[in-house]
Amino acid sequence: MFRVLPVVAGLLVLALSWNALASGGKEGTPQAINPLYTAPASSLDLAQIASMQHLLADWPQLERYRADNRRLGAPKPGEQRVVFYGDSITDAWGRAPGTTFFPGKPFVNRGISGQTTAQMVVRFRQDVIDLHPAAVVILAGTNDIAGNTGLATLPMIEDNFRSMTELARAHGIRVILASVLPTADYPWHPGLQPAGRIRALNAWLKDYAKAQGAVYLDYYDALANAQGGLDRRLAADGVHPTPAGYAIMAPLALGAIGRVLAGSTRVH
Hints:
Blueprint: H1 5-23, H2 35-38, H3 46-57, H4 63-72, E1 82-86, H5 88-91, E2 107-111, H6 117-122, H7 124-127, E3 135-139, H8 142-145, H9 154-170, E4 174-178, H10 195-212, E5 215-217, H11 220-223, H12 243-262
Parallel strand pairs: 1-2, 1-3, 3-4, 4-5
Helix pairs in contact: 9-10
């Protein structure tokens, strides 16, 4: 276990460099980077080191769905499979108490809690392309803004969306780009004031979807409150939807899937 310390220390040095770059040298600026990455190596306990070691061993978390993908098999003749691809907001859909995930539909959940778009690019072939779906619904970006895997500027996040879109289109998979859900603060990394960056990323996603002939799925406008966040009825922690939140999202997703499978990319 202790052999990971030099690697962790190296990651922390890199993270500190990213932190300085992001701040532009201004003290007190909220940083969108996991605080664990900028902590002195000597301050980390064994559990934290083990957690980082586990992340390094399978950074994109390919193991999560490997066996499930083998069991799933190819779509049935005439079946239009749809993969929902994302982070914890997708992961919890149908798995959190009180939620359901489109009963009777040939939809596949491939969300992983905590993931950023960079991790999703790496596992895109295994968890999307190799499942041979007709379409993919990509819902991601909030963890990038929260700094879960280090500094992620908006251009960096946009590049990852471009990569996933281009990979899908190269394999004949139609693309639905979902808006990032409104968030006023992250409980695990408070003080970042992410609402403005989320609105900016959503504006880019909408324009990019139109330019690429993809469908833009607008969850944001249906969920956001005046502060650019989520009311507790829709997300108890301000980030992850409650059953009431998913109940609003579900018909919007079905509408977007219907449009993309019918060949329409009209933005609603």
